[in-house]
Design a protein that fits this description.
The complex is a heterodimer of chains A (307) and B (248). Chain A is an alpha+beta fold. Chain A has helices at residues 11-22, 89-107, 116-119, 125-134, 150-158, 227-231, 244-256, 286-292, 296-306, and strands at residues 2-6, 27-31, 38-45, 48-55, 58-61, 67-70, 111-113, 142-145, 161-164, 174-175, 192-196, 201-208, 211-218, 236-240, 261-268, 274-280. Chain A has three domains: 2-113, Rossmann fold (3-Layer(aba) Sandwich), CATH 3.40.50; 119-125 and 129-135 and 199-306, 2-Layer Sandwich (D-amino Acid Aminotransferase, Chain A, domain 1); 141-196, 2-Layer Sandwich (Dna Ligase, domain 1), CATH 3.30.1490. In chain A, helix 1 crosses helix 9. Chain B has 248 residues and is an alpha/beta fold. Chain B has two domains: 2-122 and 237-246, no CATH class; 128-224, 2-Layer Sandwich (D-amino Acid Aminotransferase, Chain A, domain 1), CATH 3.30.470. In chain B, strands 2-1-6-7 form a four-stranded parallel sheet. In chain B, strands 10-9-11-12 form a four-stranded antiparallel sheet. In chain B, strand 4 (50-56) and strand 5 (62-64) form a beta hairpin. In chain B, helix 5 (128-138) crosses helix 6. Chain B starts with a strand and ends with a helix. Classes of the chains: A alpha+beta (307), B alpha/beta (248). Strand 3 of chain A pairs antiparallel with strand 8 (145-148) of chain B, so a sheet runs across the interface.
Chain lengths: 307, 248
């Protein structure tokens, strides 16, 4: 049986549930917002994980699940807890449920998309950049520093540089402008990441085990996710085919990071050099699927069905 | 140059530094997390030529990745001194940024034990559910572990030994177990299981706690990448020295 968890109306989860349903697959969805009417017990005995999960009236032995697709949001932010004080029993129940659920998923002898250790490679962009580089991709020249004196030289050498978060916390990528130099002294408080801006075409490559779905993103924006804000019109997406060599490199990178499903951000320069920026271990693929018609959700559903 | 990176309150880290120095691992520097928090300069680059690190501490000491040949890494956190400067609404963001930065620069250095991991700056921390599973798979005796909605969060990282049980501490460094020389030696099959457990955890230097259970003999009580090094005494110090010298 396949286990889906998260908020069923969220599109990445919804599309995969729809695909599984269309294929007649045996699956169950846990809706996080209904945690109050669910229960879970995890047992570990002599090197084996067992236990049970109750969703409303139905009890499932944990050993029955052969594949898991996890899209859990931060349970502390669920609307059901909005008016609950910090130590409210409902909050504790919610945290206890999610903690047990995630601990089970990590040790379950089932396919999990994706395991925490693999997801966590994305928690540090420069760390992940080193892993990406070790697997044969070019990465943009990067400087992380708290020394304002180093930044103008880095900028002069690369003509245009951007700054963005070091961690996986979402930030909008911005070009460093002349005005920003006036507040450069602020970086003394916290090392900040600067990166050479790479001219070229953005590519998003979704890898589902050994299947590759690539699309090009056409925009003038520095951060195409915010194209409408940064340059007044949304990015245009189109499906593209990768060379066999590049497709293989993407599959190998995703596998090396321990990911069954990933979203790889590439940029191809006018000189045909391929830079890799980041590997997203929990890709919100629906933006790309809906704009290109690529059957990413179908591929994920099929992979889950294989277990 | 070799480094010991630890908190100034880490007695095991300080003990290891003093003993590595005493037996001649040189040049060796103690770099505390507290001193890193007040570094005057950080310069970390990644690009076509690889990864590079340069940093300068408040006391004037300067370090460069090309000169660092080995690190005893006991970094548990980015110092709270640093976070105290952040305004409340930025604190979580700032902490994530600094931890992500530490993970990256620790990763690029040569001869680091333990290698940093996204699940722990000085090696992956295992939740008790995972540690119990891997310990059982490695061949260690384990007591049944149960977790439910009402299990307190902190129970995931506290000792699995029953209250009042006598716990013995052991340290695995690669293919050998170091234990208190004044205690009865552990059976070879238990030592082998401890080594296998560390392999499954992908942790080269690991502390493992065992307790004596009536039915099962020595039973798994917990594990940490932040080992109680003093248990291993001078044999462990010599092994660490050999580790660093062979990593060159």
């Amino acid at each position: 049986m396949i286990f889906l968890c998260g908020i069923p109306s969220e599109t990445p989860l919804r599309l995969i549930a729809n695909r599984l349903e269309a294929e007649g697959a045996n699956f169950v969805t846990f809706n996080q917002r209904e945690f109050a009417d669910c229960d879970i017990v995890l047992d570990v005995v002599a090197g084996h994980a067992a236990g049970h999960l109750r969703i409303h009236e139905t009890v499932y032995p944990l050993e029955e699940f052969t594949a898991i697709y996890c899209r859990l949001m931060d349970d502390r932010c669920l609307p059901e807890l909005e008016n609950e004080p910090a130590e409210a029993s409902l909050r504790l129940q919610c945290r206890g449920f999610h903690e047990t659920l995630t601990r089970w998923m990590e040790i379950a002898p089932a396919l999990l998309i994706n395991r925490a250790a693999a997801v966590a490679t994305n928690m540090s962009k420069p760390y992940q950049a080193q892993l990406i580089r070790e697997h044969g991709f070019l990465v943009p020249e990067t400087l992380v520093t708290n020394d304002p004196a180093l930044v103008p030289d880095f900028r002069a050498r690369h003509k245009q540089i951007v700054y963005k978060s070091i961690s996986s916390m979402r930030s909008i990528v911005h070009t460093l402008e002349d005005d920003d130099l006036l507040r450069l002294d602020h970086i003394r408080w916290c090392p900040t990441q600067f990166q050479a801006f790479i001219e070229g075409t953005n590519l998003r490559v979704h890898v589902v085990e050994d299947e590759v779905y690539a699309c090009a993103v056409d925009t003038e924006a520095t951060d195409y996710r915010y194209a409408a804000q940064q340059c007044g019109k949304p990015a245009a997406l189109r499906q593209v085919d990768l060379s066999e060599e590049l497709a293989t490199k993407c599959v190998e990178l995703s596998r090396a990071l321990g990911l069954t499903f990933s979203g790889i951000d590439l940029k191809v320069t006018p000189e045909d050099e391929v830079f890799c920026f980041e590997v997203n271990p929990s890709p919100a693929y629906t933006y790309y699927e809906c704009n290109t018609g690529q059957a990413i959700s179908k591929a994920v559903a099929h992979r889950l069905m294989k277990g | 140059m070799y480094l010991v990176v630890c908190s100034e309150t880490d007695v095991n880290g300080i003990w290891a530094y003093e003993n590595l120095l005493a037996i001649g691992l040189a040049p060796l520097s103690l770099v505390t997390l507290e001193s890193l928090a007040s570094s005057t300069t950080w310069e970390h680059r990644i690009g076509l030529d690889g990864a590079y690190l340069r940093f300068e501490l408040n006391d004037g000491r300067r370090f460069c990745s090309s000169q660092i040949r080995g690190v005893l890494n006991r970094a548990l956190f980015a110092s709270p001194n640093l976070m105290a400067e952040a305004v409340e609404e930025d604190r979580e963001y700032a902490n994530n940024e600094v931890v992500a930065f530490y993970l990256s620069w620790l990763h690029l250095l040569r001869g680091v034990i333990n290698r940093p991991s996204p699940l722990g700056l000085s090696g992956s921390w295992q939740h008790n559910s995972q540690a119990s599973l891997l310990a059982g798979q490695a061949g260690l005796a384990t007591s049944p572990y149960r977790q439910s909605v009402t299990t307190p969060m902190e129970a995931g990282y506290t000792s699995l030994a029953p209250v009042g049980a006598t716990i013995s501490h052991h340290v695995v460094l690669r293919d050998r177990v170091y234990s208190d020389p004044y205690a009865a030696p552990i059976p070879q099959r238990v030592a082998d299981a401890c080594i296998e457990f560390a392999v499954l955890c992908k942790t080269e230097l690991m502390g493992i706690d065992l307790y004596c259970s009536n039915g099962e003999g020595l039973t798994f009580a917990g594990a940490t990448p932040h080992a109680n090094l003093m248990v291993g005494g001078l044999p462990l110090i010599h092994a660490l020295t050999n580790y660093f010298r062979s990593a060159e």
